Amino acid sequence: MSIKGRFTRTSGLGLVLAAGLAMAAASPAEAKTFKWAFQGDPVSMDPYTINETLTLGFIGNIYESLIRRRKDLSIEPALAESWETVKPDVWRFHLRKNVKFHDGTPFTAKDVVFSWKRTLSQGSDVKTFVSGIKDIKVLDDHTIDIVTAGPRPIFTSEIPFWYIMSEDWAKKNKAVEVGKLTTEAENYANRHANGTGPFILKSREPGVKTVVVPNPNWWDKATHNITEGILTPIKSPATRVAALLSGELDMMYPAPTQDVNRIKGTKGLAMLEGPEARTIFLGFDLQRDELLYSNIKGKNPLKDVRVRKAMYQALDMNAIKKKVMRGNSWPAALLIAPQINGFKKELNTRFAYDPKASKKLLAAAGYPNGFEIVLDCPNDRYVNDEAICLAASAMLAKVGVKVKVNAQTKAKHFGKIKREDTSFYLLGWTPSTFDVHNVFYNNVKTRPAYLPKGVEPQPGQGQWNCGIYSNTEVDKLIELVANEIDPAKRQGMISKMMTIHKNEIGHIPLHQQPLSWAKKASIDLFQSPDNTFQLRWVTVK
Amino acid sequence: MSTLVRTRESLYRIIDSDIFYSFRSSPVTVGAAIVTLILVLGAIFAPLVTPHDPYDLEALNLMDAFNPPVWYEDGTWSFMLGTDDQGRGILSAIVYGMRLSLWVGLVAVLFSGVIGVALGLVAGYVGGNTDAVIMRVAEVQLTFPAILIALLIDGVLRGILPPFMIEELAIWVVIVSIGISGWPQYARTVRASTIVENNKEYVHAAVLTGIHPAMIMIRHVLPNVMGPVLVIATIQLAIAIINEATLSFLGVGIPVTEPSLGTLLRVGNNFLFSGEWWITVFPGVALALLVIAVNLVGDWMRDAFNPKLR
Amino acid sequence: MAAYIVRRILQAIVVMLTVALIAFSLFRFVGDPILALVGQDTTLEEQAELRKELGLTDPVVVQFARFVGNVARGELGISYGQRRPVIDMFKERLPATLELSLLSAVLAIGIGIPMGIYSGLHRDGWLSRVFQTVSLVGISLPPFLVGILLIYLFAVFIGVLPSQGRGDTVQLGWWSTGLLTWSGIKSLILPAITLGLFQMTLIMRLVRSEMLEVLRTDYIKFARARGLKNRVVNFGHALKNTLVPVITVTGLQVGSIVAFAVITETVFQWPGLGFLFLQSVQTVDIPVMAAYLVFVAAFFVIINLIVDLLYYVIDPRLRLDRTTSSDHGG
């Protein structure tokens, strides 16, 4: 072996060292390489492949949308310089001039139309972003009219993750449609990218590393100072911490809650913490007449609101906050976080932790000795998800509800609960639109199969309503909220539907989990509450 | 001759033998045997020797979580080796975890031993195509490392069983996965000995007197191959314990609700850097101690039973 | 000889098909791949359509036949997770696994054999006892535990070696090597030790026991009686005779190094095939899992075949059966 030969003699070793020194000296003094790690890897570089925060967040460094979010998540112009509503259902967008894609082709109205059509192609997973668009009319190269299906107040909040691709580039590289899994050839856009954004994709090794470099011709003023960014996916939390502690990384997220203090106490390292816009909650089987996997036969105790309330009040969220989350969580009483549009502070008070009351409620409902139940739980999706389920099972055991935790990997967990093969499950949700409507539409609205005859379902409603919560009034309110333009009236409807859902204990909201990002103290960066990490806000000192 | 007499005779034979002498003369082996014995006894009488029942959810208190061992300022005698992230005492969890690891290991070894010995006897006695098929399968399986086979079988079983049974049967899934991966070792040894025994005159004589072949195998051949089988079994026990720990560490073994040593390590690994070192280190030491002790006993048995080395 | 080879190859094909069938049928049960493919807002109808398009609703036999046919044509399908041909991914990951495995094998053999010879010759020497103790610990610690220990010690506590990954690599054609950069070599050290330790102890123990056995044989005693020098007897006669079983088992151990790489690669986030495999199990990436199993099976069958043929060449007496030496495989 060559290594052996090289290391047997000191001169050989010296040579290697010299080469290393030479390499270090050769790199320019101002080179600022920024290395960071996340627990997963972007699925694809194609912006329409999957609707997932990590992937879309990363791609947002390369591609841009008509509208982007500021640091406070409010929206600001990006590829569109401005817009106005000509009619309630017609939005006129004035596109930014003199913007070029990374390959040098100019950005014009035809690229927006092309992107819309591509988003609707078969393999696309982001059709919901453009579900409000009925038509796009091109007035000139830099002006378009977007026609929505009826008045759509939430339209501008639906498109910040809808990135614009170049028509010429896609045509040239045969990537006019999103790649399908059935074709043998790889879609060009899967590992190549051509956006208008602040960074250019330099190389891509899926699952190993992805390298980006700054775009010198970006239309906006660069606020970062990095010359190269390298993303490495590291799945294991302990390995991520080890890599940061040993100085291999400049930044990594999420940092395990238990290691936050160690990182804070290490010289040269620092933490960025804040609440994520994601709410973690428990769901019930409210549909079956007999509870699955239980010793109770012929009945479903969960259909009794007293039982649900008993289970709610048996959970000591402060203990979970203190021990499981190490102080890094925000106990919640609503399915949405304070940052989400529609949040109502007055409603965000939990029913008190009170095991005695729980026992009384269970006895009153006819279950003085409790019952058995299985809690389905992911073990690699949310912060400390498995530990939360285990802690909850011990707390419920104290009031007599014997919970068995079935913790498994997210692919299996989501499959199981989506099949409605569950009686009790843990789930978390961040509305991609930052509006309450998205949460209720997906998690609370009745699934089409359970609607009364004659009620026409909307596509995809209630698809994560795995335990079939169903309330006709709430369903109606969800529909009204989607189209109401008057903000005060809209908030009234939102508060009403949230109150009904809360009092019926449709779900048990648990908490908002923390965003914990760990970094070297010499790095300045901004933590966005939607858990996307943007390189344009990074400075290396 | 009655079974009792025979048992007593073989007992005398063991005590008299060189094997027992070599055992007494090796202090390391005696030490290992004592450690093994203590661990096994501790595991058997777990409910009596541990201060807490780690499986009793009602007794768990989340506010007890992350207590340090007793010699720290915040430590308490109630949780001598500290507590884990759910408030479970580490000492109790280790004893119960060891009980589970040993149980899984022993049953898996028994499982593969029975299958392996039976197939080995059949292959050696019947010969021909039966022999060829069994030995080909054994050979192919031997080329695959046990851990990979266990991973695969684990995957198959988890897939086939309905989800609510997986939790209940998790231990059996692991036992079968590890058990199936170990049988070829026995089969090959037993087959070789069987062929040798088969050609001896007493077997021919027995066949001539009309005794059923199965009886011949069990009564005459089996006792002669028990020595090597025991040696293999001890070594396999150590491997089974390691494989169980590995599967559990990778998250496809014993679930967290009733943790084995491997599961404890998987959970504890998350707290390696956060200062709660006792959650990983004690189960890790316990696992190493157990496997080393079993291996030492196995080593000694191998040397003692191998007449060429005596 | 030719008939023997043909028979072995036929057997190998049967084995491959069986493995493919097992692998394939189990993947049907691992989980629903569709959910790994779509985001949170995709409708159930769209999911059903995709499931049909991927052929997941066809009868198992049809799916299997399609799978085998594709593999025979060299098409391993498109990864659900990365949306590109699995064969490209394998090409990308193979160098990492092979470099790691090769270095571990070199470590295991280069250190294991001399240690074994020494402790076989000096059965009661203090150094032999040290070796025995080391080998006992090596065989008793699960590889994942060794990996964690090494990371904690050398990456975090002392901070001299990287805890994960492959460092910088250099591209030589399609082969990416970590052996030509300083950070690549540093990254290789801990995983190679983790992976090699177990095999090293196995090889050492095997060589030792083979040496002990051979040294007791009559012809060695006779050689000594003839007044031959110790050196000649030990290395000329004894070592030579231990080689046959050692070569066999070592050959088979090289195979298990590739399999054990799954665990080591996972602990060190080493971007090789084993890590890819475990990732694909977690995301239910069926094409990758299926391809990996077929790949590993082919690898083992080939190694097995080579070892068999070597045996045939080295020692014709054993051509019918090679059971005698493998009890040590442990």
Description:
The complex is a heterotrimer of chains A (541), B (310) and C (330). With 541 residues, chain A is an alpha+beta fold. Chain A is built from 16 helices and 19 strands. In chain A, the strands form 5 sheets. In chain A, strands 1, 8, 9, 10, 11, 12, 13, 16 and 17 form a 9-stranded mixed beta sheet that branches. The longest helix of chain A has 17 residues, at 10-26. The relative contact order of chain A is 0.14. Residues 1-29 of chain A have low confidence and may be disordered. Chain B is mainly alpha-helical. Chain B has a domain at 101-309: MetI-like (MetI-like fold, Orthogonal Bundle). The model of chain B is unreliable at 1-5 (pLDDT under 50). Chain C is built from 12 helices and 2 strands, in the order αααααααββααααα. Chain C has helices at residues 2-30, 34-37, 44-53, 60-72, 86-121, 126-140, 143-157, 182-215, 218-225, 230-268, 273-282, 286-314, and strands at residues 170-172, 175-177. In chain C, strand 1 (170-172) and strand 2 (175-177) form a beta hairpin.
